[in-house]
Amino acid sequence: MALDPSKITRPVFSSTYANVIMSGTLQPLQAYEQITKLPLSTVECIVPSPFPKEHVFSAVCAGVTTAMEKRTPAMYQTIIERINEVAENTPTNTGVFAASFEVLNNILSGGLEDALSKPLFHEKREMTSEQNEKMVSNFKECGSRNGAVFLGVQGGRTSEGVDFPGNQMNSVAVVGIPYAEPTPRVKAQIEYYDKYFPGLGREYGYVLPAMKKASQAAGRPIRTLEDRGAIVFLDSRFATFYCRGFLPAWITNGMKTLPNEKNALSKEISNFFKNQS
Question: Quick one: pLDDT at residue 277?
């Protein structure tokens, strides 16, 4: 995999008269512009979200995190409690996207399935595309009944390649920030960007990719102008000024930080969906 995406994008941009590039997850725009080497004449614009504000609820839960040094059994129990609060107060389907398969498996071994009153579908690392598609299809069908919970990983084929409009996914819980393991490739990416953008290597090569994955996962329930969805970040780091700067404005506008109290999330989710009826 190439370390520099501009090797592909720059020839395209330089050989065309004009380009229109748009997405709900391009922020921060300066980073995207620099990494893809857009021309200096590029016009940047953040347009207002087309989604009515009252259709989207977003919040960060304090007191939970998947930071490596805090991945204790007690922390996973708190995360499971918060996931259950979301699922129990969501009309039909809930999506849960973990930072990694390690986090996903710890949530499972911690007893998520027993804690839920709704059926649980979950990704497995060894699944074929056909098996995953079948599972996702079965999960979506639950949206026309009493609902279910889907547990997957951020940056996976479901969190970035599948849409869940309407009752196919009413709520989504983003569990943790999917920072990459410090592999030689990741270290090389950071060093490469630090060479061309001094002081920004870690941000461009490590933080930005993780936040893009989180943003993609967060947007799964909001796919049409009619959709109404709740987005919950189960990691207190998302509430920091630094991390918020990597999230799309349509998510951060009005985003709440909820206290580390049992049922605080339940009340917010319940009230949100009551106001949608």
Answer: 66
pLDDT, residue 1, reads: 52
CATH class of 53-274: alpha beta
CB 191 within 8 A of CB 251: no
How confident is the model over 40-53, as pLDDT tens digits?
A: 788 888 777 777 78
Encode the chain in three state secondary structure: CCCCCHHHHHHHHHCCCCCCCCCCCCCCHHHHHHHHCCCCCCCCCCCCCCCCHHHEEEEEECCCCCCHHHCCHHHHHHHHHHHHHHHHCCCCCEEEEECCHHHHHHHHHCCHHHHCCCCEEECCCCCCHHHHHHHHHHHHHHHHCCCCEEEEECCCHHHHHCCCCHHHCCEEEEECCCCCCCCHHHHHHHHHHHHHCCCCHHHHHHHHHHHHHHHHHHCCCCCCCCCCEEEEECCHHHHCHHHHCCCCHHHHCCCEEECCCCCHHHHHHHHHHHCCC
Q: Model confidence over 54-106: pLDDT tens digits?
A: 899 999 999 999 999 999 999 999 999 999 999 999 999 999 999 999 999 99
Name the residue ranges covered by the structural domains of the chain: 1-47, 53-274
pLDDT level of residue 2 (50, 70, 90 thresholds): low
Q: What is the pTM of this model?
A: 0.90
Helix axes 73-88, 264-274, angle to 10 degrees: 20
